[in-house]
User: Fold this.
Amino acid sequence: MDKIKNILDFSLLELGNTQVKVYTLVIILVIYLLTRVVLRIINKALGQKRLFKGLDDGTAYAVFQIIKYIVWLIAIGLILESIGVKLTLLIASSAALLVGVGLGLQQTFNDIISGIILLSERSIKLGDILEIDGDIVKVQVIGIRTSKGLNRDEITVIIPNSLITTNKVINWSHQSKKTRFKINIGVSYGSNIEKVIKVLESSVLEHSKIYNKNLIEARLVDFGASSIDFQVLFYSEDIFEIERVKSDIRRIIYLRLQENEITIPFPQMDLHLKSKEF
Assistant:
């Protein structure tokens, strides 16, 4: 027993009045392992909806991220205390340094605060489809400083959290997983309007990615310079791949218009020449 005590009391490093002994390393290791175990238990409990009922995956992820940062902050404080570093004295003695660092890392702190807001507010969750600066991304990770998303070209986009909280961001899946989209088409003058509407609606019906086929609606929207302009509206849950869906529908519409002898006109311009008599 005395041998074990002597081993634990053995000094590995001396920093002024502070000694780092073997038992200090043991305490640090225990704190680290306990922190990992506690976080794993919390994560599992959140995943199985034991802590809070009615949580979706995105909300559970946000709650866990907040808890994780708090637990690690407490663990780091305990580790510093075990080494002999007094946090109150450390903060007081480095106040001026912290001010300087804060000014230099102002944008970083802004991103961190924005990350805390995103995680606590839950206005954006994992799997949401966002439109940021004209780019469509699917949220994969919401971090404390940056978030990650996958765009339609399957490229990972790293987004500073402050960009999301301070700029105009469209969340296509915030209120509902289904969204209404539209396709515009113009046909030649002289075409049967009712027939065109029927062809457009039946063309959209042929696609498998349409949500609630009873909500498909074709409209006559305008009389253009060269065409009668229509618009067909439909709902889809495949928001991230909607451009591919719309491309497929356009191909179907084009074929069905051809089958029904309905033409899509070229832009036309009438040119009148007036001869000048001398």
Notes: Residues 123-171 form a domain with the SH3 type barrels. fold (CATH 2.30.30.60). The mean pLDDT is 80. The chain is about 45% helix and 20% strand. The chain has three domains: 17-93, 123-171, 179-259.
